[in-house]
Design goal:
By secondary structure, the protein is an alpha/beta fold. 30% of the residues lie in helices and 24% in strands. Strand 5, helix 5 (111-115) and strand 6 form a beta-alpha-beta unit. Bound molecules: malonyl-coenzyme A and adenosine monophosphate (AMP). Malonyl-coenzyme A binds next to helix 8 and strand 13.
Length: 509
Amino acid sequence: MGNPLFDQLFAPHRGSDAVFLTLPDGRQITYGGFLETVGRYANLLTWLGLKPGDRVAVQIAKSPEALAVYAACVQAGLVFLPLNTAYTPDELGYFVGDSEAGLLICDDAEVDALRSVAGEAAVETLNADGSGSFAVKASETSPDFATVARDEDDLAALLYTSGTTGRSKGAMLSQRNLLSNARILAEHWRFTGDDVQLHALPIFHTHGLFVATNIALLTGGQMIFLPKFDLDAVLRLLPQATAMMGVPTFYTRLLSDDRFDRDLVRNMRLFISGSAPLLADTHVAFEERTGHRILERYGMTETNMNTSNPYDGERRAGTVGMPLPGVDLQIIDDHSDPVPQGEIGQIIVRGPNVFQGYWRMPEKTAEELREDGFFLTGDLGCVDADGYVQIVGRSKDLIISGGYNVYPKEVELVLDQAPGVLESAVIGVPHPDLGEAVLGVLVADGGVLDESAILDGLHQSLARFKHPKALTVLPELPRNAMGKVQKNILRQELADFFERERGQRRREE
Ligand code: MLC
Ligand code: AMP
C-alpha cells in the first residue's frame, strides 16, 4: 500500500547529496543526511510505544530537527501536531489533553512547566540547537526504518485553530489534503529543484510548514532556513534566493528599509504573500521598488490553499486570484444560495485540499463542513467578471495580527475576569506593522482601572501575540436593540487608534 506522503515528499531523497537546508551560519544539511535523522527519529518514536494514528504534540523552536520530527511522524504513520512556541503552559495543556497526544516534545527550558500539564503524554525534549533527550535517544537508533503503510485518507496532521466560542478546534488533515495541495502549488508557481526559498516563516502553521516546506520537498529544492523573520538576515540572504513566501508584514517591513532595492532581489523569481490581506498600496509600492509583482494567494488551516493569482497572467492587487485547479469555490448568501456574479457573500470551498473535520467535534464539523463537501470559510468575498476572488471581510469574529489568528472571545473571557473590569470588547484595528492589531476596550466597574496590571495579568493564560497591544476605557459599550455589542461601531471609532498612538510617540521623541 505504501505511504503516499512519505513516498512522494521524502523517500526519493534518500542518500542524496543535494542540499536541502542552509542555515544562517552557512551550515548545510543534505537531503540524504536529513533522511537519516528522520529514520532515527521514526525508530525512536516507535520504540517509545507510539502506534500508527497516535498524536505527537510538538512545541519546539524552528530547526532542521523540528522538520525531521514532522517527517518522522509521517514515516511512522503518526499524526503530527505542531504548536505555536508562544503558547503558555495553560494553553498547551488543553491541546495535549484534547488530542490525547501520546508524546509531547518540548524545549528543555520549558520541560518542568509543561510536565505538569502534559497529563498522560510522555515528555521528551528537543532544543533549537538539536540537543535534548529526544536527540540523545535517537542517536542510539538506526537510520533505517521500515516506513509504516498509510492510506491517502489517513490523518497526517492535526492543527489547532481557535474558535469563535474561545475553544480551539483541531483541524484533521489527511495525507491527500497535504499531498494534493503541494502538487498543485508546486506546478502552479513553477517550483523546481533549482529553486532556493528564503524561509523565514514559523513551521507550526500551514503557511511555513505545508505550503513552503512541502513544495521544497516535492521538487527537491533548497531552503535558506531562518529561525524567524529577522530583517537584517533577510536583506543579507535575499541575493542567494529565488523565491520567498511571507505574510504581508514581511513585505511592509522590507519596504520600510532603504537597503531593500532592485539589486538585492536580482536572483528572485517569485514573492508570494498570504495568511492576511496584502494592501493594494503595498503591492504597488513593492513593484515600484523591485520590479516584482507579489503573487497573493488565499488559504486556511482547514483547507490548505484555495486560490492563487496566476503565475503568468495578471497578478491583480487587492485580489487573491482564482480557485486553484480542483478547487470549487462559491459565494453564498445567508440562505446558502449562490449570489449573482459580482455580489458579496460567504466564500465556501470544496476539493481534495479540504480537511476531514474537527477532531472529536462532530457538531462543529457539521456546522462548517457541509455534507456535499463544501467548507464554510467564514470569509466574505466576491468574484469579479474575470474570475478573480476578492476578500472583503469576515463573518467570523477574528483578528489577524501579523498572520496570527486571535479570536476576540478568548481574550474577552480573560479580560472580563480582571480586577475592576465590568466588561470588555476586543477588536482588531489597522496597525502599521501588523496589518491589524488587537485592541482591548474596557468598561470599568465604577473605579479606576490599572491598565498595565491588567495586561500583566494575561501572561498566565494567553500567548503573548494574543495580548492587546493597547487598552482603552469607555463609559459603556455600544449595543444594538438585542443587547449585542456593536463591534463595527467600535472598529470605526477606533480605526486610527494605532496611527494616533504612533503620531504621539513621534511627537514625544
Ligand atoms: C510577534 N508578536 C506579535 C506577533 N508576532 N504580536 C502580534 N501579532 C504577531 N503576529 C509579539 C511578540 O509576542 C513580542 O511581544 C513582540 O511581538 C516581538 O516578538 P518577535 O518574535 O520579535 O516578533 P516579530 O519577529 O516581530 O514577529 C512578527 C512576525 C511574526 C509578523 C514576523 O508574527 C510572523 O512570523 N508571523 C507569521 C505568522 C504565520 O506564519 N501565519 C500563517 C498562519 S497559516 P512582546 O510584547 O513580548 O515584545 C494561515 C493559512 C494561510 O493563516 O493562508 O497561510
Ligand atoms: P488560519 O485559520 O490561520 O488558517 O487563517 C485563515 C484565514 O486567514 C482565512 O480564513 C482568511 O480570513 C485569512 N487569509 C488567508 N489568506 C488571506 C489573504 N490572502 N487575504 C486575506 N485574508 C487571508
